[in-house]
Design the sequence.
């Protein structure tokens, strides 16, 4: 079968196309013919050696993919050949609190990922794709969508009428926008680009802030909410935006700490105290959360935002497209 491996963590050029034997499912595993994969910022960080978790040498990259089951190992009961499925980011986090071995089960990191024609996954690490989605759409769900869902719904107990602030227009943030709208919440979207803000508006954002022309976007959020502050921030900037997110929330509001896209800065713990802020670190999510999210997306007909689809041969170009930051939503590779 065709696959890519990451020969070293020295950059996108270390991605190498290889031929290898297709893996065979063992007890409790399924083999999936991958139809589409999607990229996350993490995949860039892994390729450039900037990811904080250990990575398997010569790993097959990418956590996210969807396809069709072509073989099942002994004792598999939940799936059959022909089922349309998506893989779970963590192969070993079915429900509850994550155990210490969960991180090593992350696809495209601790364990081989989805950028291959055939992959073997744990039965508990796959789930049926929402029927209304194409494989390209289903492939966008495992990391970005579930992270946004985990932040807003599982921890944030998202309610109709809440005000949610999403940062930028990348994968996590556009799912957060859609999930918030699905739940009847008000959305403030920020971006470095007015053109992208117009697209966020078309997707349902109520209020738009360009964080380049309005670097004090936390004050803009306060103005929009009449001085109250927002209920939740989906924080993807990290140290460079965290302080502003704390300033943007209402008293007792929530900052879900997800990403670290913007540079370093110091955090003043007194602000957390003064705001009685809830700060929650988020790490993608479990299979049970993924199932709940897939049900909600199916019921509401939610369609992921696919920015662009690249061919298998052009996988390195897909990485470069993500690195350029010109995308809106998700970047997909068709296998
Ligand atoms: N903890 C977890 O489980 C988890 C899961 C998924 C992702 N993440 C992290 O979350 C972050 C986003 O991931 P992603 O895959 O959604 O990335 P992505 O699709 O590459 O999104 C990047 C976008 O973020 C926006 N951005 C960049 N710097 C910003 C800043 N200073 N302020 C506001 N927005 C900024 C830009 O949007 P505009 O072009 O519109 O300005 C950029 O296009 C990454 O750090 C990633 O590692 C963490």
Sequence:
């Amino acid at each position: 079968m065709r696959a890519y491996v990451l020969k070293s963590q020295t950059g996108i050029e270390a991605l190498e196309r290889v031929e290898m034997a297709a893996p065979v499912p063992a007890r409790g595993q399924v083999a999936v013919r991958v139809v589409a994969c999607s990229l996350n910022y993490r995949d860039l960080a892994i390729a450039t050696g900037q990811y904080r978790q250990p990575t398997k040498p010569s790993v097959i990259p990418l956590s996210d993919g969807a396809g069709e089951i072509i073989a099942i190992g002994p004792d598999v009961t939940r799936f059959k050949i022909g089922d349309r499925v998506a893989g779970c980011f963590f192969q070993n986090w079915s429900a509850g609190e994550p155990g210490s071995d969960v991180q090593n089960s992350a696809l495209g990191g601790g364990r081989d990922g989805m950028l291959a024609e055939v992959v073997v996954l744990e039965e508990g690490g796959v789930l049926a794709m929402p029927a209304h989605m194409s494989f390209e759409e289903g492939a966008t769900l495992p990391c970005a969508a579930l992270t946004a869902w985990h932040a807003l719904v599982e921890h944030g107990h998202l309610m109709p009428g809440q005000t949610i602030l999403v940062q930028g227009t990348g994968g996590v943030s556009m799912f957060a926008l859609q999930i918030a709208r699905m739940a009847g919440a008000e959305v403030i979207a920020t971006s470095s680009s007015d053109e992208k803000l117009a697209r966020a508006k078309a997707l349902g954002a109520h209020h738009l802030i360009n964080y380049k022309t309005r670097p004090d976007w936390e004050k803009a959020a306060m103005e929009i909410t009449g001085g109250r502050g927002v209920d939740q921030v989906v924080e993807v900037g990290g140290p460079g935006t965290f302080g502003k997110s704390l300033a943007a929330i209402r008293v007792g509001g929530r900052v879900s700490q997800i990403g670290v896209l913007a540079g370093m800065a110091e955090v003043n713990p007194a602000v957390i105290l003064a705001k009685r802020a809830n700060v929650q670190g988020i790490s993608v999510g479990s299979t049970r959360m993924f199932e709940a999210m897939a049900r909600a997306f199916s019921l509401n007909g939610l369609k992921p935002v696919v920015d662009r689809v690249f061919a298998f041969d052009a996988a390195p170009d897909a990485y470069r497209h993500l690195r350029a930051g010109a995308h809106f939503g998700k970047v997909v590779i068709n296998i």
Observations:
- The longest helix spans residues 141-155.
- The chain has a mean pLDDT of 96.
